[in-house]
Write a structure and sequence with these properties.
Number of domains: 1
Order of helices and strands: HEHEEEEEEE
Helix content: 10-25%
Number of helices: 2
Radius of gyration: 17 Å
Shape: globular
Oligomer: single chain
Length: 158
């Protein structure tokens, strides 16, 4: 069963339960290993995020309004960044062996996948809310299920 054929039935059920509606999309997800800290910092700089966060050993760093201060000495453990003009997200996770897994998410128009958008409350009052796009797929064993989520920015203070 392809995602486009599920869309109407899924949205009918979701609307009765007042849940976010799904829309058809095309996603591309790529993951690479970065095993050098200087290369990681260059990748983050080149990504040029508008919003997001980085988790370090002793603190978190917020990226807001395109301003990201990269820590030269503090080690980055994980993070999620969003570049609005390209509608691209970059998630990074320390791999436990001295490297980082960098996953890029791009989502565009198409019909091979499904997505919805949710807003979550942030733990940091300065940020307000966080917005994520959840990516869904269908397989015969598990049915329709979420398999990934990408940050799409901060929603502001309410």
């Amino acid at each position: 069963m392809n995602p486009a054929s599920l869309l109407g039935a899924a949205n009918s059920i979701l609307s009765r339960r007042e849940l976010p509606q799904l829309s058809a999309c095309q996603w591309q997800i790529t993951t690479v290993l970065c095993d050098d800290y200087a290369a990681l910092l260059n990748t983050l700089r080149d990504f040029a995020p508008d919003e997001g966060w980085l988790g370090c050993q002793s603190h978190n760093i917020l990226c807001q309004a395109g301003e990201l201060t990269l820590p030269p000495a503090s080690r980055i453990i994980d993070g999620e960044l969003y570049a609005r003009a390209r509608d691209e997200s970059l998630h990074l996770r320390h791999d436990g062996q001295g490297g980082w897994l960098l996953t890029r998410y791009t989502v565009g128009s198409g019909k091979s996948g499904l997505s919805d958008t949710v807003t979550l409350l942030g733990a940091n009052r300065e940020v307000g809310t966080l917005t994520y796009q959840r990516l869904w797929c269908h397989d015969p064993r598990h049915g329709l299920h979420q398999f990934a989520a990408r940050i799409t920015g901060f929603g502001g203070k309410d």
